[in-house]
Amino acid sequence: MPDPLTDESTCPTATRNGAQALIETASAGGVEVCFANPGTTEMPLVTALDKVPAIRPVLGLFEGVCTGAADGYARIAGKPAMTLLHLGPGFANGIANLHNARRAHSPVLNVVGDHASWHLPYDAPLTSDIQSLATPVSGWVGTVESAAHTSRATVEALAAARTPPGCGATLIVPADFQQETFGEPLTAVPPPPGPGRVVPATVDGIAEKVRRSKHTVVLLGAGGLTERGQRAAQRIARATGATLYSETFPAAAERGGGLPDLDRLPYFPEAAIKALADAETVVLAGALEPVAYFGYSNMPSLLAPPGTVRVLAEPGEDAAQALEELATALGAPLASSDRRPDLPDRSLPTGRLDPAAIGRIVATLLPDNAIVSVEGGTCGYPFFTASAHAARHTTLTNTGGAIGQGLPAALGAAVAAPDRRVIALQSDGSAQYTIQALWTMAREQVSVVTLIASNRRYGILRTELGRHGGSATGSASAALTSLDDPALDWPALAAGYGVPAQRAESGIELIDALTRALVEDGPQLIEMVL
Description:
Layout: E1 16-17, H1 18-28, E2 33-37, H2 43-51, E3 56-59, H3 63-77, E4 81-86, H4 87-93, H5 95-104, E5 108-114, H6 130-134, E6 140-143, H7 150-162, E7 168-174, H8 175-179, E8 181-182, H9 200-212, E9 216-220, H10 227-240, E10 243-246, E11 253-255, E12 263-264, H11 269-276, E13 281-285, E14 309-313, H12 319-329, H13 355-365, E15 370-375, H14 377-386, E16 393-396, H15 406-416, E17 422-427, H16 428-431, H17 437-444, E18 448-454, H18 459-467, H19 475-481, H20 490-496, E19 501-504, H21 507-517, E20 524-529
Helix pairs in contact: 1-2, 1-7, 3-5, 3-15, 9-12, 10-12, 13-14, 13-21
């Protein structure tokens, strides 16, 4: 064991280079994992990871895998992972999943190497404006100005990322400052702040508004979708007749195991407007005001009736505590928290697969305390409906709509919680965006079961074609929304990345395949043919 008074990796006044200072400071701030796709300008940081073994390096073959994995990790672990990305183009490859992470309020520490500071004026081929690329998907962006500044800049980035509700913080590190040495102490890392407390006046004002309303809707997000938040919301609903909804695409939501059977607010604006139409008060508990996903002619962008929205808790505030206080203010009795869940129907479908059959089978076979990363509407909504009576689990959804999140988020969740079984319920088209995640799952031997809903088309695009007066029968429309010429060979693709795979065309085959996959170590893939 190294002597903490002499070992360079622990002694605060030892001579070290900027790269080692960054990695040591990140480790002191609780960072335990680095999802990396490094290049030439990050080699000093790679070497520093050798010297600081407390941070686990995880290689991704594509930067979108790294950023999506960091997002999934943060949603489960509740603290930042680090990404290590190569210059502006490497960061750009990861932007889509950083967009999703921003919408999820996930704390992520992005470290991006840059050219040596003295080399930047020469506009070498890989030179780019990293700050401009990073700003739209980061709550904080900074650039290291010297080796001695590295530790302080890392602390500032971590503080920004960990401040509720959480955000991506991007730290740009020129290569020369990674290599230069200095002898100053590292900057101390303060503990992360907790969520803000909702003031009593807010609770009392909303309680009075709810009492006066004939009908109230409570929309839950963030901390409102924890077990505490949902049980408090259930008390409010029982006492007042309020309707409860989850936000449409929550970052993480507890589900099953006797928790309330929450519907998600519908995706399409017509249905969401109808769901909220009778509400005199719409209470937001950890959720933002609902907005239509896209703008449609003759359709409002804001979905709640005008003047009805009241904010109980912002995403960065303690929504669970606020809901408990609101329930008390409304005189709602305490609810029993040990009610056993209703037993699911064990007569599972055994014939040809369809989305409803898949939803029922997966929900019924789901192990206790699983994590389900859902991407794609084909089976996502049927599973959510069926999963109310499943074993307790956590659901992750695509918060920002940039597809290619599901597999990396499942990877990150599995790294964050190696004792929990992870299922990636994934549509076939979106899986191709970040299919390289399968290789990292195989290398890290994480217990992820990937379920591919193989309908060989972009189903949501065909739905939108119809909504815009088009049809998939047109030659261009058919060509741009189909995935069957050639058909994707999922077992072969999985095998190429080192992941064992099976194919199921019927309910009985899926039941058998999933039952076997859930007891195997390491990653598995099942193609579910629709």
